[in-house]
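Example 3.2
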Amino acid sequence: MKPILSKAQLDYMKAKTKFEDKAKVMEKKIELARAAQNEISQEVMEELVVETGFHDAFNELTMAENALIQWSHSTIKHEKTYRDNKAEIEMMYSRLNDDPKMRSRIIQLAMKIR
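Structure, written as C-alpha coordinates:
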Protein backbone atom coordinates (compact mmCIF):
# COMPACT_ATOMS: atom_id res chain seq x y z
CA MET A 1 0.00 0.00 0.00
CA LYS A 2 1.30 3.44 -0.94
CA PRO A 3 1.80 5.89 1.92
CA ILE A 4 -0.54 8.86 1.94
CA LEU A 5 1.42 12.07 1.47
CA SER A 6 0.39 15.60 2.29
CA LYS A 7 0.02 18.30 -0.37
CA ALA A 8 3.27 19.89 0.85
CA GLN A 9 5.12 16.58 0.46
CA LEU A 10 3.67 15.96 -3.01
CA ASP A 11 4.46 19.51 -4.15
CA TYR A 12 8.03 19.15 -2.87
CA MET A 13 8.51 15.85 -4.70
CA LYS A 14 7.15 17.36 -7.92
CA ALA A 15 9.35 20.47 -7.63
CA LYS A 16 12.43 18.39 -6.80
CA THR A 17 11.89 16.15 -9.82
CA LYS A 18 11.41 19.16 -12.08
CA PHE A 19 14.56 20.80 -10.68
CA GLU A 20 16.60 17.63 -11.20
CA ASP A 21 15.32 17.31 -14.79
CA LYS A 22 16.19 20.95 -15.54
CA ALA A 23 19.63 20.46 -13.95
CA LYS A 24 20.32 17.55 -16.32
CA VAL A 25 19.31 19.65 -19.32
CA MET A 26 21.48 22.50 -18.04
CA GLU A 27 24.48 20.18 -17.63
CA LYS A 28 24.13 18.99 -21.24
CA LYS A 29 23.89 22.57 -22.50
CA ILE A 30 26.99 23.51 -20.51
CA GLU A 31 28.88 20.58 -22.01
CA LEU A 32 27.87 21.69 -25.51
CA ALA A 33 28.88 25.28 -24.78
CA ARG A 34 32.24 24.10 -23.41
CA ALA A 35 32.84 22.05 -26.54
CA ALA A 36 32.22 25.16 -28.64
CA GLN A 37 34.29 27.43 -26.37
CA ASN A 38 37.00 26.59 -23.88
CA GLU A 39 35.60 28.87 -21.21
CA ILE A 40 31.99 29.77 -20.57
CA SER A 41 31.41 33.41 -19.78
CA GLN A 42 29.04 34.59 -17.10
CA GLU A 43 26.82 36.01 -19.83
CA VAL A 44 26.55 32.64 -21.58
CA MET A 45 25.90 30.90 -18.25
CA GLU A 46 23.11 33.35 -17.41
CA GLU A 47 21.53 32.73 -20.82
CA LEU A 48 21.65 28.97 -20.25
CA VAL A 49 20.07 29.32 -16.80
CA VAL A 50 17.15 31.25 -18.28
CA GLU A 51 16.90 29.20 -21.48
CA THR A 52 16.74 25.85 -19.69
CA GLY A 53 14.26 27.01 -17.06
CA PHE A 54 16.75 26.13 -14.34
CA HIS A 55 16.21 29.40 -12.48
CA ASP A 56 12.43 28.98 -12.38
CA ALA A 57 12.78 25.35 -11.28
CA PHE A 58 15.17 26.42 -8.51
CA ASN A 59 12.72 29.06 -7.29
CA GLU A 60 9.84 26.57 -7.36
CA LEU A 61 11.91 24.06 -5.40
CA THR A 62 12.81 26.68 -2.79
CA MET A 63 9.15 27.66 -2.38
CA ALA A 64 8.13 23.98 -2.11
CA GLU A 65 10.86 23.39 0.49
CA ASN A 66 9.66 26.37 2.51
CA ALA A 67 6.05 25.16 2.37
CA LEU A 68 7.15 21.64 3.38
CA ILE A 69 9.16 22.98 6.31
CA GLN A 70 6.27 25.16 7.46
CA TRP A 71 3.83 22.25 7.13
CA SER A 72 6.14 19.89 9.02
CA HIS A 73 6.66 22.41 11.82
CA SER A 74 2.94 22.82 12.39
CA THR A 75 2.19 19.10 11.91
CA ILE A 76 4.88 17.81 14.25
CA LYS A 77 3.51 19.89 17.13
CA HIS A 78 0.73 17.31 17.48
CA GLU A 79 3.20 14.46 18.01
CA LYS A 80 4.29 13.09 21.39
CA THR A 81 7.92 13.19 20.20
CA TYR A 82 7.61 16.95 19.77
CA ARG A 83 6.19 17.47 23.24
CA ASP A 84 8.98 15.34 24.73
CA ASN A 85 11.75 17.13 22.78
CA LYS A 86 10.27 20.56 22.17
CA ALA A 87 13.42 22.59 22.93
CA GLU A 88 15.68 20.51 20.66
CA ILE A 89 13.18 20.46 17.80
CA GLU A 90 12.56 24.21 18.03
CA MET A 91 16.33 24.76 17.99
CA MET A 92 16.56 22.72 14.77
CA TYR A 93 13.88 24.84 13.11
CA SER A 94 15.47 28.07 14.33
CA ARG A 95 18.77 27.10 12.66
CA LEU A 96 17.37 26.02 9.31
CA ASN A 97 18.11 29.35 7.56
CA ASP A 98 21.65 29.54 8.95
CA ASP A 99 22.73 25.93 8.42
CA PRO A 100 22.15 24.25 5.01
CA LYS A 101 22.75 20.82 6.56
CA MET A 102 20.04 21.47 9.15
CA ARG A 103 17.66 22.61 6.40
CA SER A 104 18.37 19.43 4.47
CA ARG A 105 17.88 17.31 7.57
CA ILE A 106 14.54 18.95 8.35
CA ILE A 107 13.38 18.38 4.77
CA GLN A 108 14.37 14.71 4.97
CA LEU A 109 12.54 14.34 8.28
CA ALA A 110 9.49 16.18 6.91
CA MET A 111 9.25 13.67 4.08
CA LYS A 112 9.01 10.86 6.65
CA ILE A 113 5.97 12.35 8.43
CA ARG A 114 2.81 10.39 7.76
